[in-house]
Design brief:
single chain; mainly beta; 10-stranded antiparallel beta sheet; 10 strands; 0% helix
């Protein structure tokens, strides 16, 4: 896969009384080092840039956001991981229990699919799914 990539991120959060779907399509960078996949991209939130890194290794995913909101989230199949999400309005404790992580790699694409439970401040918020597709440009 080339270093210049097109990244598509689709997320679905299902709560008791509603569901929320989002999709982001952006340009980014990709590289593989020591058997780990790295996907880097930026997004604009309230007129400020947020740098994002997705690191994928086997059935472990780390997502790091730096900028207006900052967090380092860990997804491991069958484990609950807790992080602090820092925002301009304060900090939020975020817990993730990954039920399933699937990675599929070809010469031109990388696909990541995750299903997980999301808690904010120790309260279950949603059952979530996210898919990330990285395609060579």
């Amino acid at each position: 896969m080339t270093s210049d990539v097109l990244i598509t991120i689709k997320g679905l959060q299902m709560a008791l009384d509603s569901s929320d779907c989002l999709e982001i399509i952006t340009n980014g960078k990709y590289f593989k080092k020591n058997g780990k996949h790295y996907v880097l991209y930026e997004e604009v939130v309230e007129d400020q840039r947020v740098s994002n890194m997705i690191k994928i290794h086997d059935e472990t995913v780390e997502i790091t956001k730096k900028g207006l909101a900052s967090v380092q989230m860990f997804f491991e199949t069958g484990k609950k991981n807790t992080s602090i999400y820092s925002t301009p309005f304060g900090q939020i404790e975020i817990s993730i229990y990954a039920e399933q992580i699937r990675v599929n790699e070809t010469d031109r694409t990388l696909e990541l699919n995750m299903q997980y439970d999301l808690e904010l401040n120790s309260q279950h918020v949603s059952d979530s799914q996210v898919s990330v597709t990285v395609v060579s440009r």
